[in-house]
């Protein structure tokens, strides 16, 4: 029986943990995410861009699951990943960042802009250059519209075909449906860049001392999944309200 091929619209690649720290000048590298575990191994303190929060570490069972998952060599090696795709019947995939999911915690425009460029350059070198079966999403800073437009135009010039957007820009600035973002939608349309919004990327306010919403107990898994998808639905409606979807693919 011939293999039925499919495409993946939501894949991720595991970048080197020191990607940003190794490519940024020290004064900025020191502000990138860093974690320090408590002696008892129960909690850790995460510091990023002058902010800090504490979070409970995974259970031993969860750690083993993650470690087993990360044994798949294709999660870090784009050439070996092609073998995984062939085995699974996946012809092409849209690839979102993993490290880049931290972007919503940043508050310094210069830092986030530098991190996004470092990630984009690395993605071009290590993933996109390997095969055109990989549609890697460009990353842009959403702290300022000007930085977002600048990076999108640079990324389009480098051959990126899609741009990763969080469900909501940083809380310090205007939301997607405001006129402030019109230059970005115009730039994306001009470049033929597909807008790719990923759920679970709401801005994080570390001053509240917690990250995200976590339900436990009966039905917790369903509620947690539902919670993460709400923001994606809201983002789509904001793009409709802004008029961006009337003339632009997503």
Question: What does this molecule look like?
Answer:
With 250 residues, the chain is α/β, with parallel strands linked by helices. It has one domain (10-247): TIM Barrel (Alpha-Beta Barrel). It has helices spanning 19-23, 26-29, 60-69, 78-88, 109-128, 145-157, 182-191, 220-242, 244-247; strands spanning 6-12, 34-37, 43-48, 51-56, 90-96, 134-139, 162-165, 194-197. The strands form two sheets. The protein has a five-stranded parallel beta sheet with strand order 1-5-6-7-8. The longest helix is centred in the C-terminal third of the chain and has 23 residues, at 220-242. 28% of the residues are buried. The mean pLDDT is 86.
Number of strands: 8
* Widest sheet, order of strands: 1-5-6-7-8
CATH homologous superfamily placement: Metal-dependent hydrolases
Radius of gyration: 19 Å
Total domains, how many?
1
Rough outline: globular
What is this structure's SSE topology?
Elements: E1 6-12, H1 19-23, H2 26-29, E2 34-37, E3 43-48, E4 51-56, H3 60-69, H4 78-88, E5 90-96, H5 109-128, E6 134-139, H6 145-157, E7 162-165, H7 182-191, E8 194-197, H8 220-242, H9 244-247
Parallel strand pairs: 1-5, 5-6, 6-7, 7-8
Antiparallel strand pairs: 2-3, 3-4
């Amino acid at each position: 029986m011939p293999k039925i091929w499919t495409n993946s619209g939501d894949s991720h690649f595991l970048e080197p943990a020191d990607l940003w720290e190794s490519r940024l000048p020290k004064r900025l590298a020191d502000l990138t995410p860093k974690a320090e575990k408590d002696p008892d191994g129960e909690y850790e303190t995460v510091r990023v861009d002058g902010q800090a929060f504490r979070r409970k570490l995974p259970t031993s069972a969860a750690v083993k699951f993650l470690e087993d998952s990360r044994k798949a060599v294709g999660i870090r090696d784009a050439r070996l990943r092609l073998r995984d795709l062939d085995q699974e019947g996946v012809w092409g995939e849209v690839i979102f960042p993993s490290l880049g999911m931290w972007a919503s915690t940043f508050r310094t425009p210069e830092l986030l802009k530098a991190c996004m460029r470092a990630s984009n350059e690395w993605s071009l070198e290590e993933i996109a250059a390997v095969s055109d079966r990989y549609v890697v999403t460009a990353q842009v800073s959403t702290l300022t519209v000007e930085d977002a437009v600048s990076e999108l135009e640079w990324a389009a010039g480098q051959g990126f075909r899609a741009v990763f957007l969080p469900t909501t820009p940083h809380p310090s600035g205007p939301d997607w449906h405001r006129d402030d973002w019109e230059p970005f939608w115009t730039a994306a349309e001009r470049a033929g860049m597909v807008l790719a919004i990923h759920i679970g990327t709401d801005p994080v306010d570390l001053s509240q001392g917690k990250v995200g919403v976590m339900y436990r107990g009966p039905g917790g898994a369903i509620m947690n999944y539902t919670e993460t998808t709400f923001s994606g639905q809201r983002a789509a409606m904001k793009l409709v309200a802004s008029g961006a979807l009337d003339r632009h693919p997503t």
